[in-house]
Specification:
The chain is mostly helical. The chain contains 15 helices and no strands.
Length: 280
């Protein structure tokens, strides 16, 4: 059994050194090594909330959600104003499907740190998960107000606006996300999808082009680019894209999408043959 009174005779710097070593290993992905360092810090000082929070992060990244929860609970018991521990516990609760509890944790984090942009963002995600889209939008608004360069918040607000039927606002948010993070591929893809819905097939194709430049194996982008090409009567281009999409879907194990792409490709090939026959 550890004698907790020992920590009273130790230099606090020794405890902090173990914590720093843990953070260093954590930053390079050595999670097991990081946990070992955090354990040493906790052995020397079992009442150090920051180390429990750090160890909880590492455990969560390893998929040990129960262990992470125990560490966050301990950190909060030691310091009930510890916003980061509430925030991180909220993330674990979201990952384990406890949405209402996650919202409560994010709210506690915001209560203790009112300008906590990430907590607003995560609470917005949790509210989306509980079908509270208008409330989610308010949280994304606040996250963006606090951090105007928060690309992911623009992206999720764009998704929410799309769900609510405000396509113009969704496109604006995706565009802003792309300005901040030019390779934010989900924003590019979703913007293309909405442009298609709005009848801007040329604009949609441009976005799918960009998505494919970023990820040449993006099967859905090829498939949707092909759909837009069919509207513009670019049958050769559509056939090539459906073919590429089908091959990628097959390689990625998405057999339902593979069948759809094959059917679309065969349909376009038939139309193409008929069109050439009519020209003769």
């Amino acid at each position: 059994m550890i004698d907790h009174n020992i920590s009273l005779d130790l230099d606090p710097e020794q405890v902090e050194n173990y914590n720093r070593q843990g953070l260093k290993k954590h930053s390079v992905g050595d999670l097991e090594g990081a946990i070992a360092e955090y354990n040493r810090a906790i052995e020397l000082n079992p009442d150090y909330p920051k180390v429990y929070n750090n160890r909880g992060l590492a455990k969560g990244q390893l998929g040990d959600f129960a262990g992470a929860m125990a560490d966050y609970n301990r950190a909060i018991n030691l310091d009930n104003n510890y916003a980061k521990a509430y925030y991180n516990r909220g993330r674990v609760r979201m990952a384990t499907g406890k949405i209402a509890s996650a919202i409560a944790d994010y709210s506690w984090a915001i209560k203790h740190v009112p300008n906590y942009a990430k907590a607003y963002y995560r609470r917005g995600l949790a509210k989306l998960g509980s079908d509270k889209k208008q409330e989610a939008t308010i949280d994304f608004d606040r996250a963006i107000e606090l951090n105007p360069n928060y690309a992911q918040a623009y992206y999720q607000r764009g998704n929410t606006k799309n769900y609510l039927g405000d396509n113009a606002a969704a496109v604006a948010d995706y565009s802003r996300a792309i300005e901040i993070a030019p390779e934010h591929i989900k924003s590019i893809y979703n913007r293309g999808h909405i442009k298609c819905e709005m009848g801007d097939n040329v604009g949609a194709i441009s976005d799918y082009d960009l998505a494919i430049e970023i990820d040449c194996n993006y099967a859905k982008a090829y498939y949707n680019r092909a759909l837009n090409k069919t509207v513009l009567k670019d049958r050769e281009g559509a056939i090539a894209d459906f073919d590429r999409a089908a091959n990628l879907f097959y390689e990625q194990g998405d057999l339902d999408s593979y069948q759809k792409a094959i059917q679309k490709q065969e349909q376009e090939q038939e139309y193409n043959i008929r069109g050439k026959s009519a020209e003769k």
